[in-house]
Amino acid sequence: MIPKPCIIDCDPGTDDAIALWLALASPELDVRLVTVAGGNVGLARTTANARAVVGLTGRAVPVVAGAERSLLADFRAEPAVHGSDGLGGVALPEGPPLAPGIAADAIRAELRAAAPHSVTVIGLGPATNLALAFATEPALADRVAEIVLMSGAWSEGNITPAAEFNAWNDPEALAVLLNLGRPLAIATLDLTAQAFVTPDLVARLAQRPGGACWQAALAILRALPASKRFGHRGFPLHDPCAVAWAIAPGLFGARPAHAEMDLAPGPSRGRTVIDRWGRLGRAPNLTLLETLDAPAFFALLAERVAALP
User: Fold this and answer.
1) Which of 14, 83, 225, 293 is the most exposed place for a label (fewest CB within 10 A)?
2) What residue ranges define each of the domains in the chain, with the CATH number in brackets?
3) Is 232 among the residues known to form the active site?
4) From the candidates 82, 117, 232, 238, which is the catalytic residue?
5) Residue 213 contacts residue 305 (beta carbons within 8 Å)
């Protein structure tokens, strides 16, 4: 197996942290760059968290800071979910310093050095950094093998009735990626709801021994609040689903679909209008992840992250 060169753009964030550990623990991926936006809790915290998460693995992967706001507005943070520190109050040792530069520049540099159709790009937050990179040098899209995003919903949103958090925070940036013309897979809220975490599940996962990364991941899972959307029974684990598609696509059922963004002002702004059944007669522009083998997903997550230092 030849690992896939990989760029991860994120905004840690509790589920981002677990997704990063899953990616860094997986031999299918050669994570070469982590870039950070200020989505979940502001750029100062998200960059500190990304450094700490990567540092705990002992891997020398550069972490580069990026956008502190969306293309057109400020990000809206979500401390009620992630805590004021972004990690649910779980303290990690401080990580290595940020690598110099700006995220969009670092993404472009990594892609310029890559072979055509070789790099997997995983986006776990607002798509601002990725959109800036591709909008300013569109030819670099040729270096991309696939873009995998945790974003959007075909039904109800989680930040507004219409929109998912990442999509709503920078819908113009997501529109750039939808129109890039490269293979794109998307894990929506409808998919990530199937990666549902309950206290019983966490108790079962905790029976597995593991290193500091695994213990921190379990602490984060214990700290996350139960979701009102799911009757306070538990919560969906969003971002690791995107990483799981990149390393184990057999866990998913998927279909081609067409999606476009609602960019108008008003209550539907940020909605991902996803045509699952071809009603608009438009060519598919993404692979829509629809179903997840949840037991196998959590088994993979536990196996990989528990093996980290």
Assistant:
1) 225
2) 4-306 (3.90.245.10)
3) no
4) 238
5) yes
